Automatic annotation (TrEMBL):
Lineage, opening ranks: Bacteria, Pseudomonadati, Pseudomonadota, Gammaproteobacteria, Alteromonadales
Domain of life of the source: Bacteria
Stored InterPro entries: HepT (IPR010235)
GO molecular function ontology, one term from the record: transferase activity
Keyword Metal-binding: no
SUPFAM superfamilies xrefs: Nucleotidyltransferase substrate binding subunit/domain (SSF81593)
Name of the featured protein: Nucleotidyltransferase substrate-binding protein
Coiled-coil features, chain-numbered ranges: none
Keywords recorded for this protein, A-Z: Transferase
């Protein structure tokens, strides 16, 4: 693999995402509060890497990013067809921000459910698309 920043950050994303998926394989109803907080923290870290991979990939491809914030990067990524569903990405931003500033157990449960039902499937699809692109580039 070429020494390309977005691919290096993508490798870090893959490791973090693997840890998040591993944690989400547990029965959420059986987890204690500390374990749930650990999953939320893994989600926050994984999302941070995901939006930065998007930014690095778009810059690598020659897109000019005027405003470097998660929301601005997601909007540009959607416009440029790097992601298929901006709404889910924007919800991830909102949930990541909410969990950074809130310790409400009901909200924790809602975010955990969103991770399981919406965010993991979307991030898995996005990850597979980038992996396919890397493999094509090596052929």
């Amino acid at each position: 693999m070429q020494d390309i920043r977005w691919q290096q950050r993508f490798q870090n994303f893959q490791r973090a995402f693997g840890l998040l998926r591993e944690a989400m394989d547990q029965d959420l109803k059986q987890l204690n509060q500390l374990e749930k907080e650990g999953i939320i923290q893994r989600f926050e870290f994984t999302f941070e890497l995901a939006w930065k991979v998007l930014k690095d990939k778009m810059e690598h491809d020659g897109l000019v990013i005027d405003q470097i914030s998660p929301r601005a990067v997601v909007r540009l990524a959607y416009q440029a067809k790097y992601i298929a569903d901006a709404e889910v990405w924007l919800r991830m931003i909102g949930d990541r921000n909410l969990m950074s500033h809130t310790y409400d157990s009901a909200k924790f449960e809602l975010v955990l459910q969103a991770i399981a039902s919406d965010y993991l499937p979307m991030l898995t699809e996005w990850q597979l698309g980038l992996l396919a692109e890397i493999v094509q580039g090596q052929e």
